[in-house]
Amino acid sequence: MNLRAVVPPPAPSPSRASIGGPPLDSAGAADDFGSVEVISLAGPFEASAEERKLLCLLADGRLLVADGQHLNAHVLSYQARLQKMGRPFQVLYVRIDTVRRLNQSGGLLDRHQEHSMMQVTAKELLSRACQARASDIHIRVRSASTEIHFRIHNDLLPVGGQTREYGERLLATLYGAMTSVSDSSYKPSERQDASIADRDKLPPGLYGVRIATVPTSEGTLMVLRLLYNDAGDNVDLHRLGFAPAHVAVLQQLKEQPIGLNIISGPTGSGKSTTLQRVLQGELLEACGRLHVLTVEDPVEYPIDGAVQTSVTNAGSEEDRARLFAAAISNAMRLDPDTIMIGEVRDRASAQNALRAAMTGHQVWTTVHANSAAAIVDRLLDLGLPASLVADHTVITGLISQRLVKALCPHCKVELARAPGVLAPSVAERVAQVVSDLRQVYVTGPGCPHCAGRGTTGRTVLAEIIVPDEQFFRHIRQGDKSAAVAHWLQELGGRTIVDHAIEKVAAGLIDPRMAEQVVGRLMLRPGQSARRLQVVGDGDAV
Q1: Do the Cβ atoms of 349 and 311 come closer than 8 Å?
Q2: 213, 222 in Cβ contact below 8 A?
Q3: Which one of 30, 326, 357, 410 has the minimum C-beta count within 10 Å?
Q4: pLDDT at position 317
Q5: How far apart are CA 278 and CA 338, in angstroms?
């Protein structure tokens, strides 16, 4: 059937209303709606109580409107909403008692039964993603279909498709029946954020789910970030891929009783996992004698022994920023030894994080920045004064990290046995930065150990700056290049590119994948090609 919005016909004439017998619908057929589901009772196309007195929308696209109500304001408003949402429909005029009966019966399925079935379907989807170790689920509701993708090891892979109606009901169920927000009304035409924290609604191994939705030109996109609890008692940062030198510096920062330590990186770079293991390690080393307090939006990973607080249910971004800043301010009055702030995202939260570090607390947080040195630029961009930001007694650690795919040790291939696999320019750069090419490996064909992917999870690439007075003197003078040069030459700094070269030289990562994450593999001035000291390869994450 070619479904489209149609211009309502004129209202039935008085002579028709006076004729005996049941009135016919506008298609000229008797009532044949009993086998079709009503979708205007709940979900994205839910009609208001007043609208349900006059109309109902069927799953096959027919919009049943009570005779004589084609100009009613409630009917016109509902039709306009369907058009705005891009939902095709065909108007049919029926007796008002037909509308009432269908709205009472719900059509094909009992509404509660259907809702429960969709919850089971949603949980099964989460279980499949969990078994595949996906980091995200993308559900794209398009004009005529629904597409589902899993992000696995940073690759977005299609895993199935469904009808548009299926996707709309799935999104409505995920948001409306499974999240822990106070306003659980799913609104396809608005941007919405929520989380699933009820463990009864999650498969084993999954700690929580963060949900974000956005309307698109064709329908709606929902992205679910899956939060795993993999740490347990394992707080070894080597296993994430940090080099021994990185682990030593992070241990130094953990033992420093005051100061602000900031981890930067793009979304999905493992910042929250690093924070979890750092704080978990602090608590284990202190045998529970520390009061660690977190302020998160929402709580992402469990930290045994910490007091974790969540800022949720804000009605807008402005409300969220205000509540988040107030929560940080309140945390300072709760006698913490260490405060963890989920993310510095605006001036108010940055100011409060800095204030907490200045008043005798150890503070850990994250921010979006391109490098360790760029964290300072980000804080200045948020409106913090340079005199406070550029103080090595307040900001004690600047950390930047990325995740890169780790080669499967069972099927990786020596570069010498794969001539021509690298583009000439890449091969030339690898030859310049690694002296022993016999240790360089590239992605293999796949095997049972890696499920045919050639890679086994991801590993960390990082750089850490422990700033001193001279570093920040250059920053205050506006000479960032001099500050970075001081870090590299006088403080023994290693860049994230250096870390990538080390892992390429150790045969742990493919040079092509490394360049996709950190850019071109190039030596710094004065640096010579050599097999760098093997870094923590660890367990891929």
Answers
A1: no
A2: yes
A3: 30
A4: 67
A5: 11
Q: Per-block average pLDDT, block size 10, for the chain (541 residues)?
A: 42 33 39 73 84 90 90 92 90 88 66 66 91 93 93 90 87 84 74 83 86 92 88 78 96 94 93 93 91 88 89 66 85 93 89 91 94 95 90 95 96 92 94 91 94 92 97 94 95 95 96 95 73 47 50
Q: Backbone phi, then psi, for 399, in 5-degree steps?
A: -125, 135
pLDDT value at residue 28:
38
Length of the chain: 541
CB-CB contact of 392 with 472 (8 Å): yes
pLDDT at 25: 42
Nearest to 362 by CA among 378, 341, 333: 341
Instruction: Name the helix (H) or strand (E) containing 405.
Output: strand 395-407
**Sheet strands side by side (includes 155-162):** 155-162, 146-152, 136-141, 220-228, 206-215, 192-196
In b/e form, how buried is each residue of 201-216, taking b as 16+ CB within 10 angstroms? bbbeebbbbbbebebe
What backbone phi and psi angles, to 5 degrees, belong to 250?
Answer: -65, -35
Of the candidates 369, 372, 366, 368, the residue with the CA atom closest to the CA atom of residue 353 = 366
May I ask the CATH architecture of the domain 108-228?
2-Layer Sandwich (3.30)
Q: What is the DSSP letter of 58?
A: B
Q: Are 33 and 98 in contact, with CB atoms under 8 Å apart?
A: yes
Of 507, 409, 392, 394, the residue nearest 454 (C-alpha):
409
Token representation of residue 394: 């307040």
CB 185 within 8 A of CB 213: no
Residues linked to residue 458 through DSSP beta bridges, in sequence order: 405
Domain parsing of the chain, residue ranges = 49-94, 108-228, 237-402+468-487
Q: At which residue do the structure tokens 């799935």 appear?
A: 170
Number of CB atoms found within 10 A of residue 483's CB: 23
CATH architecture, domain 237-402+468-487: 3-Layer(aba) Sandwich (3.40)
Round to whole Å and give the CA distance between 203 and 226: 11
Rounded Cα gap, residues 443 and 421, in angstroms: 10
What does the block give as tokens for 270? 């493992």
